[in-house]
Amino acid sequence: MSKLSMALANLSPHNQRNVTLLAKSFTIKGLSVDDLVVLSGAHTLGVSRCGMFQYRLANDNDKGMNATFRNDLRRRCNYNAANVAPLDAGSKYGVRQLKNDPSTFMCSFELSMGKMGALHGSNQGKVCDNCRRVRV
């Protein structure tokens, strides 16, 4: 399992995260934008429950989110955290292509997991068997 303190030390505050900042975080660790897409896609593959990002929809001053995209998500989510919204409208990050080609996704996922697993921090990590649980 991941240690929350270690994960948070390597990420910007949650209300400031966008693809550009996440890509920068991955690059600093020696991972690519493709790795970001594939590893994120393992969780959502282009869709997410509105409750996962609802806090971002409440703030019109959030410069990390395109206003048109935010308004579209507001319409789709309709203030219901259980609703599911598409997050890839044919973005340059390739989620749609991976969704339509499961074998390429699985191969890419395997390679990216291997790269991520080869990262070493100051503390010995443990394998996470449930992505929804945080080790504190």
What does this molecule look like?
There is one protein chain. By secondary structure, the chain is mainly alpha-helical. It has seven helices and two strands. The protein has helices at residues 4-9, 19-28, 33-41, 54-57, 67-77, 95-99, 102-117, and strands spanning 47-49, 84-86. A two-stranded antiparallel sheet has the order 1-2. Helix 3 crosses helix 7. The longest helix has 16 residues, at 102-117. The model has no long low-confidence stretch (mean pLDDT 75).
The SSE string, one letter per element, is: HHHEHHEHH
- Helix vs. strand class: mainly alpha
Write down the overall geometry.
globular
Low-confidence stretches: none
Average pLDDT taken over every residue: 75
Radius of gyration: 16 Å
- Order of neighbouring strands in the sheet with most strands: 1-2
Number of strands: 2
Strand content: under 5%
Oligomer: single chain
